[in-house]
Amino acid sequence: MEKQALLSATGPRDSYGSMPPEADPAASAFPETSPGEEWASAPPVDMLDDVVGYEGTASGGDGSYILPPVSIAEGARRDVPRPQTAWSIPSITEDIAREAFIEFASSKCCYSISPAKDMIFRDLRPYNTYRYRLESFTESRSTKWKMVPYSGQFVDSSAYGIPPLPWDIIVERPPMFQDHEKKIAVPHTSSIKGCHICMTLGKIACNKCTMTGQVKCWVCKGRGSQLGNDICTRCNGFGLQKCTHCSGQGTELCKTCKASGQLMVFIQLTVKWKNIIDESIADQQSGLPLDLYDKMAGQNILTDQQYRVYPVAGFPENPINQASQLAIQKHQSELTRTSHIIQQRQTIEFIPITQVFYEWKGTEYNYFTCGTKNKVYAPDYPAKCCCCSIL
Predict the structure, then answer these.
(1) Contact 268, 166 (CB under 8 A)
(2) Is 289 helix (H, G, I), strand (E, B) or coil?
(3) Is 366 exposed, middle or buried (0-12, 13-18, 19+ CB in 10 A)?
(4) Contact of 169 with 23, CB cutoff 8 Å
(5) pLDDT single digits (tens) 95-123
(6) CB 335 within 8 A of CB 302
(7) Cα 341 from Cα 165, distance rounded (Å)
(8) 0.90 cut: is pTM over it?
(9) 234 CB-contact burial (10 Å; exposed 0-12 / middle 13-18 / buried 19+)
(10) How distant, in Å, are the alpha carbons of 96, 149, 196, 354, 378 from that of 298?
(11) Cα separation values, 305 from 110, 198, 218, 302, 310, Å
(12) What span, in angstroms and rounded, lies between the C-alpha atoms of 360 and 44?
């Protein structure tokens, strides 16, 4: 299996063959934001500079996705998966089936364990199956214009160098097959602009008093008098009182620039890592509800992880071969439109399922033992006082 190095600012080259940008003081001006944190809203179009390589970058929304370059890993060697030729999952016995049934009944406060202890076995019918899973760990990059209040911090402008292209910026990857997101400022794209909200004044009109500094008295509703024509003691008969929102100033500090009158505008790069999963079950001849398969533990008989996996071929159950081919084709055609597939992993699990037929008090019933942990599914348990049967 071909191993792919993580992006690192300490190495001479990243996984795309690009040289890391030289260290500069811009990092202190742009601390990384957490997934739930946002910079200020996007600036208007007339405030945006022309940046080579970032033409057409949006100033709002989710940003513009940037297609990755042809990766140097495209030529990496790939190994054909070889399923394990032998695995050991013992056939369920009557003792194991009874033990699982007793444990199931004991876990229900409203169930009697008598059927599980006193039942007579009639038949054990296997419905063993396989579960196929494909995981594609992807990285996507998008850019958009953002702004923050300017308070004297370092401005990483184009005077410090040419802005690197979106996929040339080195960003440390999270662990494989885990969703993550990072937002950083693109180096050398910053500039200072006057605040378009307050027109560089640092203040805006108070929207409560419309710059008058006074609002209608809430006690007399602006009449100046109360019941019986008495003068309103709250406003002394004027019908107006000082605006508490702006303390009578008529203006309030601009929240966009935090009263500085200036904004630092820059391009924000958003890097998203996502683990895309497709699962298939070889067959469901048992008739069990489909959602139960998600809760069944299986025994892994194949794990194939590399840059790109080949479709499984020659597996004894042809539905697994077909599921592998369809899933890989789907991920290749859909995910590569906006992202780069870093690594893929496909697995096959053997899932033992047995339907147990038994008799209790002259009536026949049945239940299922599911997965390697022999979890029981028994929707028609004969001695219960309420409808409660979940895997």
Answers:
(1) no
(2) coil
(3) middle
(4) no
(5) 999 999 999 999 888 888 899 999 999 99
(6) no
(7) 19
(8) no
(9) middle
(10) 17, 54, 60, 13, 20
(11) 46, 55, 70, 10, 10
(12) 76
